[in-house]
């Protein structure tokens, strides 16, 4: 077993060396071969309580094994990532925000484990696996909606209350109601593809999001930042957003129209 700071890192392999990586509900065995890698994964019935790394004798080469030929590099990099689609929070606790006021909510988002050879860039990604399977959902109307994952209805009201596992990221959100009436928060979509990941005291954290709601017919605004109280004095970013920055700006401009509903 290894500490989390050293789990998300670069590994040197020798030819024929085989290692097992276990996090959340996922288990991945990787063997380094002469010109590449063999990868075998499975989903567990119960989550691992810790992030685990073990050297194992070998990998059974069967029909479930993926083969990657990447040249003579001996380096494998294991990185955390947020889900590959937006996640949706469904409010079943009657959260209402009065005019001119704000609410802070904290969510636990299951991570994905990614494997890269030699360098962290899209063309070098061998494989990725979610550490917990999330249910598919649809956000918005039939014609203009989008597929997403559901994170249910659980949230915390303060950062100190959050009890996240080591395979979840904590995402903090401030919602500002800049209208003249109550905001009845029914569902909230978080476009986690736009979030970076940070590590503080063994806990993974996403960007802090400030969402300003200006009414159903008006474009709101969203800002992704770090906060000293959450991310520390010198935030340690270990993972960039999945989406390119140019795409992020376009997505942010349409962030609110489908996010929340007003009485």
What brief labels describe this structure?
6% helix; disordered N terminus; 263 residues; mainly beta; 2 domains; 5-stranded antiparallel β-sheet; 7-stranded mixed β-sheet
Give me a quick take on this structure.
Helices cover 6% and strands 44% of the residues. It is mainly beta.
Overall helicity:
under 10%
* Whole-number tally of structural domains: 2
**Run of helices and strands:** HEEEEEEEEEEEEEEEEEEEEEHEHE
The coarse overall form would be: elongated
Report the end-to-end length measured between terminal Cα atoms: 51 Å
- Largest sheet descriptor: 7 strands, mixed
Q: Give the DSSP E fraction (strand runs of 2 or more residues).
A: 35-45%
Helix count from the secondary structure assignment = 3
Instruction: Give the low-confidence spans.
Output: 1-5, 248-263
Rg, Cα atoms, Å: 20 Å
> What structural category arises from helix and sheet content?
mainly beta
The whole-number mean of residue pLDDT values reads 88
For the secondary structure, the number of strands is 23
Q: What report would you give on this structure?
A:
By secondary structure, this protein is mostly beta strands. The protein folds into 2 domains: 4-79, no CATH class; 82-110 and 132-262, no CATH class. It has helices at 4-7, 228-231, 245-253; strands at residues 10-12, 18-23, 26-33, 36-43, 52-55, 66-69, 75-81, 87-90, 96-97, 102-110, 112-117, 125-130, 135-139, 146-150, 168-177, 183-184, 187-190, 197-200, 203-206, 208-213, 221-225, 237-239, 261-262. The strands form 5 sheets. Strands 10, 15, 18, 19, 20, 21 and 22 form a 7-stranded mixed β-sheet that branches. The radius of gyration is 20 Å and the shape is elongated. Mean pLDDT is 88; it is low at 1-5 and 248-263.
């Amino acid at each position: 077993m290894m500490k989390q700071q050293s789990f998300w890192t670069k590994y040197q392999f020798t030819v024929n060396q085989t290692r097992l990586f276990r996090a959340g509900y996922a288990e991945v065995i990787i063997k380094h071969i002469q010109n590449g890698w063999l990868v075998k994964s499975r989903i567990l019935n119960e989550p691992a309580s810790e992030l685990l790394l073990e050297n194992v004798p070998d990998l059974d080469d069967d029909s479930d094994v993926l083969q990657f030929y990447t040249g003579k590099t001996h380096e494998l990099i294991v990185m955390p990532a947020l889900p590959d689609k937006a996640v949706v929070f469904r409010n079943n606790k009657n959260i209402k925000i009065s005019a001119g006021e704000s609410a802070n909510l904290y969510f636990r988002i299951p991570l994905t484990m990614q494997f890269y050879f030699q360098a962290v860039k899209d063309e070098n990604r061998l494989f990725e696996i979610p550490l917990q399977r999330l249910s598919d959902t649809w956000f918005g109307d039939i014609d203009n909606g989008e597929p997403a994952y559901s994170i249910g209805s659980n949230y915390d009201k303060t950062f100190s209350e959050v009890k996240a596992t080591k395979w979840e990221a904590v995402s903090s959100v401030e919602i500002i109601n800049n209208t003249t009436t109550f905001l009845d928060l029914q569902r909230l979509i978080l476009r986690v593809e736009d979030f970076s990941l940070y590590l503080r005291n063994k806990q993974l954290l996403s960007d802090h999001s400030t969402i300003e709601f200006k009414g159903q017919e008006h474009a709101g605004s969203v800002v992704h930042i770090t906060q000293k109280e959450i991310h520390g004095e010198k935030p340690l970013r270990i993972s960039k957003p999945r989406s390119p920055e140019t795409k992020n700006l376009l997505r942010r401009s349409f962030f609110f129209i489908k996010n929340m509903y007003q009485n």
